[in-house]
Amino acid sequence: MEATSTLANDPWRHDDIRSTFADVRRQSELLTAPLAAEDCVVQSMPDVSPTKWHLAHTTWFFETFILGPYAPGYRSFNEAFAYLFNSYYEGAGPRHSRPQRGLLSRPTVQEVFDYRRYVDQRLQDLLDAPPSAHRAAIMERAEIGLHHEQQHQELLLMDIKHVFSRNPLLPAYRPSAGDATMTEARIPALDWMSFEGGLVEIGHAGDGFAFDNETPRHKAYLEPFRLARRPVTNLEYIDFIEDSGYRRPELWLSDGWHAVQAEGWQAPLYWQRKDDRWMQFTLHGQRPASTTEPVVHVSLYEADAFARWAGHRLPTEFEWETAAITEPVEGNFLSDETFHPRAVSASHTQLYGDIWELTQSSYGPYPGYRPLEGTLGEYNGKFMCSQNVVRGGCCLTPRGHVRTTYRNFFYPHQRWCAQGIRLAADAR
């Protein structure tokens, strides 16, 4: 596509929204560099959106929530885009059906890039000289919009991975320097971090950006617990498979067992048995599933079944946050350009980056939660039902986007998201 240089490695800059806007918008386009126009229009399942749609929707967000209300005399690039690229905001009007986004051969990819240029220029002009009466609202919404775009950068890559996995040619998004090798030698023994529990404080407070679902900060009581010092590896998950893990109903939640039977699950998404070894499709193409890497692309159901098989459990999101607050927010993120989880390490907990870590916690409101007013209040609060919280970010998450209090969420059956497993246990 259009942009060809490497991804920016700068952390999030809170002091200069205008400069950050240019960086974030450019990074989204850099992610399309390895793609052809034909790649950008495919929708491989209802949960996946075409690359073109991500580029247009993030632009629609700025146009709808900033330029429309606050830019004097603003005229939309194309009035039809308000319908085509609204995702789920009922307050913003009707929208095109999500499962049919792949049918949008028009507008063309080039027209979407033109749309981005049009909106970018007018938003930069507004950020340069915001009307004094609306300056605070414009800056607040711009910051939300930039974090929203970073979420879609991650989704864009998860989605194109699924798209490529359905192509018989198994194309690589970015060829790797070499294939992973299967070895057990570097896997550190499973060790545990112990925590006393008690009354803890959870959630965001103070300065710095956070989504509304991370607030308000509140107290929670935890029993003493242990958290594994590293994620579950492919090797350990292979042991679960070979011990008939997918054929033992006593290990599974009822809905999980139904999903196994209905979908024919036998291994994580993107795994295939070939010549007596497990192969794994990645953004670098298909390669052997390295035993030293964290297992990724498993559902909550699979993670829960594995934990039962291992004699442990998944952590709650409050346990995870209590453990993670002791660690720096460092890890393998998007700007490292690995596009895949790195091998587990004896010297690094990998609580941040590599894989989103599944928790047993249902996604719901904190005590005293209040969504944003108006249509933007639909951003998080309306999804607080039937989903589970994941924590920590992954190898596709933009650096600086994740915080200890960050709450992401997916449905229990979903596997295309880059999520994996860390075990927890009651203290003994």
Brief digest:
With 428 residues, the protein is α+β, with helices and mostly antiparallel strands. The chain has 9 helices and 12 strands. The protein folds into 2 domains: 17-165, Up-down Bundle (Four Helix Bundle (Hemerythrin (Met), subunit A)), CATH 1.20.120; 192-426, paralog of FGE (formylglycine-generating enzyme) (Alpha-Beta Complex), CATH 3.90.1580.10.
Q: What is the name of the CATH architecture of the largest domain?
A: Alpha-Beta Complex
Strand order of the largest sheet: 10-9-8-11
Low-confidence stretches: 2-15, 179-184
Whole-number average pLDDT? 94
Q: How many separate domains?
A: 2
Calculate the terminal CA-CA distance, rounded to whole Å. 55 Å
List SSEs in N-to-C order. Answer: HHHHHEEEEHHEEEHHEEEEE
* Whole-angstrom Rg: 22 Å
CATH level 4 superfamily of the largest domain: paralog of FGE (formylglycine-generating enzyme)
Task: Give the class-level CATH name of the largest domain.
Answer: Alpha Beta
Helices, by number, come to 9
Shape: globular
Protein model, in words:
The protein is an alpha+beta fold and 428 residues long. The chain has two domains: 17-165, Four Helix Bundle (Hemerythrin (Met), subunit A); 192-426, paralog of FGE (formylglycine-generating enzyme), CATH 3.90.1580. 30% of the residues lie in helices and 12% in strands. The chain has nine helices and twelve strands. It has helices spanning 17-30, 51-70, 81-84, 109-128, 135-165, 234-242, 254-263, 300-310, 317-324; strands spanning 192-195, 198-202, 218-222, 225-228, 271-274, 277-282, 285-288, 356-362, 388-391, 408-410, 419-420, 424-426. The protein has a four-stranded mixed β-sheet. Strand 6 and strand 7 (285-288) form a beta hairpin. Helix 1 (17-30) packs antiparallel against helix 4, helix 2 (51-70) packs antiparallel against helix 5 (135-165) and helix 7 (254-263) crosses helix 8. The radius of gyration is 22 Å and the shape is globular. The chain starts with 16 loop residues before the first helix and ends with a strand.
